Each structure stands twice: as C-alpha cells, then as structure tokens.
Amino acid sequence: MRTVFSARDQFQIVGEVSNGLDAVRKAHELKPELVLLDINLPDLDGLEVSRRVLRTAPKTKIVYVTTNTDPELVEVAMSNGVLGYVLKHEAVNDLLRAIQSALRGEKFISSQLRHY
Q1: Per-residue pLDDT band at 52 (split at 50, 70, 90)
Q2: Helix axes 46-56, 71-78, angle to 10 degrees
Q3: Which tens digits make up the pLDDT trace of 29-44?
Q4: Which of 12, 17, 33, 52 could tie 22 with a disulfide, CB 3.0–4.6 Å?
Q5: Helix/strand/coil (H, E, C) string of the chain?
C-alpha cells in the first residue's frame, strides 16, 4: 500500500504502525485526516482502535482494510463511525474509491460485502 500511495501526489503518509496501541497513540498525536486500519491487530483489535481514535480525533476518517468477511463483524464495524470496509483481495479495485468516499464523508463497502 505504501508504494501505491507514495506514487500519488494527493496523499501523504504521515505514520505507520504495527499494532493497535501504537495506532491509537499515533492517531492521537498526529490527528490524521484518514486512517487505514486492519481489524486483526496485536495488542488491541481494530474495532477498539477505531473507537478510541474517533474519541480523540473525531474528524479522522477510518477505512478498514482487512480479510475478515464475517457479516456480523462488518455490521458492527460500519456502525462505529467508520466509513469504509475494504477486503484486502479487492483493495486493488476498491481502496482508492473507499478513500475518496470516506474523505467526502460517505460510506464504502467492498462489492463482495455490499449485501450486508
């Protein structure tokens, strides 16, 4: 993903982390416009990370990029103020559209999951 975003002038990567607790800390520190987040993270899962990030940086837009297709999880994830849910295997087609939608304040779900 870093390669995709580095090649686009409209995006600037301001931070990267490898676990949930660091994601919360970094988002609190940087208050980014957008966070791409996996559901399955060490230390703190993506659902709790998104809750905490949105509490401390409510203007931050969050898009999950994950392999998890559990319908109940998708429903919970999208009810927490998160604006996007992209499956990793569909990211090539969906991620840029999900980001653009989130930045407009609109929700986006990968096509395979839209029936949820």
Answers
A1: very high
A2: 10
A3: 999 999 999 999 999 9
A4: 17
A5: CHHHHHCCCCCCCCCCCCCHHHHHHHHHHHCCCEEEECCCCCCCCHHHHHHHHHHHCCCCEEEEEECCCCHHHHHHHHCCCCCEEEEHHHHHHHHHHHHHHHHCCCCEECHHHCCC
Taking only the tens place, the pLDDT of each residue in 97-110 is: 999 999 999 999 99
Domain range enclosing 34: 2-113
CATH code, domain with 64: 3.40.50.2300
Rounded-to-integer distance, Cα 34 and Cα 30, Å: 11
Q: Can you give the pTM of this predicted structure?
A: 0.90
